[in-house]
Amino acid sequence: MKNELIDLLCKKSFQFSEEPVFKLASGQTSHYYINCKPVTLSSRGLYLIGHLVFDALKDRSIEAVGGMTFGADPIAVAASLISETRGAPFAAFSIRKTQKDHGIVKWIEGDLSAGQRVAIVEDVATTGGSSLKAIERARSEGLFVDCVVMLVDREEGGAENIQKTVPEVRSIVTRAELLAAYRGGQ
Fold first, then answer.
1. Which amino acids does the record list as binding orotate (predicted)?
2. Is 166 annotated as a binding-site member?
3. 30 annotated to bind ligand
4. Of 20, 23, 46, 148, which has the most beta carbons under 10 Å away?
5. Pick the CATH number of 2-184 from 3.40.50.2020, 3.60.15.10, 3.40.30.10, 3.40.190.150
6. Residue 124 labeled ligand binder
7. Which residues does 176 contact at the CB level (< 8 Å), separation at least 6?
8. Does 127 belong to an annotated binding site?
9. Higher per-residue confidence, 170 vs 185
């Protein structure tokens, strides 16, 4: 499944340039750009991602998985769906970019209660900023963040930054794996 996901990411999500022309959310420029949404919003991508993220979390005893909207949403939903089919169900949740200012003021949407053990997911991690923000907001709602799973780790310090705040950080695919597959497919 992982090799198929890497192939799909290379075909639909990965772009490379000899010059660093791609501006990232972190403000840095890069030789490559990874937009996971064409894969995370495809049926085959969701199937593969759901299984791979579930496998990365199955030993963690979590009760829910989620992250910053919009990038984490399809990943969390896919993993939650697969968790049900594999007999170890956990819920999905979404963390808002801006706090809800009406009704019950909160950061997180989903069927969660304070004290629950959760995992944060992210589509692409460079510095880890989105995951760190998600961790902070989840904790502010009383959740215990046990683990972070990155769909793609750009291997630019994000995992190390995140590891300072949670017990476990895992990646499904790394930049090195994507680059190797991209170069091998040219």
1. 126, 154
2. no
3. no
4. 148
5. 3.40.50.2020
6. yes
7. 155
8. yes
9. 170
